[in-house]
Amino acid sequence: MSASDPDTWFRFVRAHRCLIREIERRLAAAGLPAYAWYDALWGLESGPDGTRRMHELADVMAIERYNLTRLIDRLEVEGLVERSRATDDARGACATITQSGKILRKKMWQIYEGTVAELFLSQFDDEQQRFFSDALERTATSARNSARSAAALARGSSRSV
Which of 24, 42, 55, 145 is the least buried, fewest Cβ under 10 Å from its Cβ? Predict the structure, then answer.
């Protein structure tokens, strides 16, 4: 990339950070918890029957599992989620959003949705939104596939040792 080309990656990361910071500010001003709480609650609510295995939730949120465990601990103390053992694997853990969690997530969504519409979506017409959305989905798919390929390669090389 030449020095005169726009630095798309840097601009994307900066825009994302600025938007999340503003969402966080608006949530706090409304007396609501941090954005990460919304992300976890939505990740659960969008799962089958409001439940996901912890590793699935970590994947949906694109968060490290150790960070997720601490977050779910806090949400559980607040009565927003319940944890249980997976029915098909006693070693696996699941989290389920409670009714209180659903109510809180909806309150948070009002702030979140309004901020995204005002500061992000308003910058694009419908065609640009579709194009950008599709490009982001291709990017995420590419990154997930790369990670899977690397993991498969690592498993293969550990077998040959």
Answer: 145
User: pTM for this structure?
Assistant: 0.82
Using CB atoms within 10 A of its CB, is residue 105 exposed (0-12), middle (13-18) or buried (19+)?
buried
Among candidates 55, 91, 54, 61, which has minimal Cα distance to 76? 54
Side chain identity, residue 125:
D
Q: Over the stretch 119-157, which tens digit does the pLDDT of each residue have?
A: 999 999 999 999 999 999 999 899 888 978 887 777 776
Q: What is the CATH number of the domain that holds 96?
A: 1.10.10.10
| The residue to which tokens 């939104």 are assigned | 129
Q: Under a CB-based contact definition with an 8 Å cutoff, are residues 107 and 26 in contact?
A: no
Other residues' Cβ atoms within 10 Å of the Cβ of residue 106: 11
Give yes or no for a contact between 80 and 101, defined as CB atoms under 8 angstroms apart.
Answer: yes
Find the domain containing 87 and state its range: 34-108
Say if residues 21 and 34 touch (Cβ distance below 8 Å): no
User: Cα separation of 55 and 3, whole Å?
Assistant: 41
CA pair distance 59, 51, nearest whole angstrom: 14
Phi-psi region of 91 (alpha: psi -120 to 50; beta: other; left: phi over 0): alpha
Sheet of strand 81-85: strand arrangement: 51-53, 93-97, 81-85
